[in-house]
Design a protein that fits this description.
Elements (H helix, E strand, L loop, with lengths): L2 H27 L1 H7 L6 H6 L5 H7 L3 H16 L4 H6 L3 H18 L1 H13 L7 H25 L3 E2 L3 H21 L2 H17 L1 E2 L3
Antiparallel strand pairs: 1-2
Helix pairs in contact: 1-5, 2-8, 5-8, 7-9, 7-10, 8-10, 9-10, 10-11
Length: about 210
């Protein structure tokens, strides 16, 4: 490669990196606007009207709302799929892990309800629209791995064997979380308490003596 071609390649690479970094910045900045509007009511123009960015800027970096939503959710999940790793790492007993995981899960339920709602909205939409189904399946797999790190460490600390597969453990805990999210949005505090009890019961069922 000639010096001129090498210089041109480096310039093009920096331009691509800058473009992707800007896409990520815009996606993160508009994430909560997306979450409030939901998939069906979202367009780049509406997002622009509810954010500090112009429609022209958003349209330059994203081809359509699907491109922006998918990118935003991937960015969010990249942060979320490790949210419980610190809890897992510092746990010295099964009971400590169960307690701290429960607190962390219900804290994000309250603090990030609108964004969790966006994730479930997008997951449901992928049943009808295959254009971002691959992204949803990838995120789903990473969420399953996240939950399994909690479950497997809980069993290890309790010196027991898990009775559920990673997929079954995930859909069970995810079902509790999604139902709790619905009641959180509806303001049903009593049901949030019931969800905590359900999660506690599931932890009891997740493992059996056997080592």
């Amino acid at each position: 490669m000639t010096p001129e071609a090498d210089t041109r390649a480096r310039v093009e690479e920096r331009a691509r990196d800058k473009f992707q970094a800007r896409r990520t910045e815009l996606a993160q900045a508009t994430l909560h606007t997306l979450a409030e509007l939901g998939y069906a009511r979202t367009s780049l123009r509406e997002i622009a009207q509810n954010s500090e960015y112009s429609h022209g800027v958003l349209h330059y970096y994203f081809s359509d709302k699907l491109d922006l939503i998918a990118h935003a959710v991937r960015q969010y999940e990249a942060m979320c799929v490790t949210r419980y790793d610190e809890v897992v790492a510092r746990a010295e007993s099964a009971e400590q892990l169960r307690s701290e995981f429960t607190c962390a899960l219900f804290e994000t339920l309250r603090a990030d309800a609108s964004v969790h709602r966006l994730w479930y909205d997008l997951r449901n939409q992928s049943l009808f629209d295959d254009s971002f189904r691959t992204d949803v399946l990838e995120i789903e797999a990473r969420r399953e791995q996240m939950i399994w790190r909690v479950v497997s460490r809980f069993c290890e600390l309790g010196d027991v064997d898990p009775v559920l597969s990673p997929a079954t453990a995930y859909v069970t805990l995810d079902g509790i979380f999604q139902r709790a999210l619905l009641h959180q949005i509806a303001g049903n505090e009593d049901e949030i308490g019931h969800a905590r009890e359900q999660l506690d019961a599931i932890f009891t069922l997740l493992a059996k003596p056997g080592r």
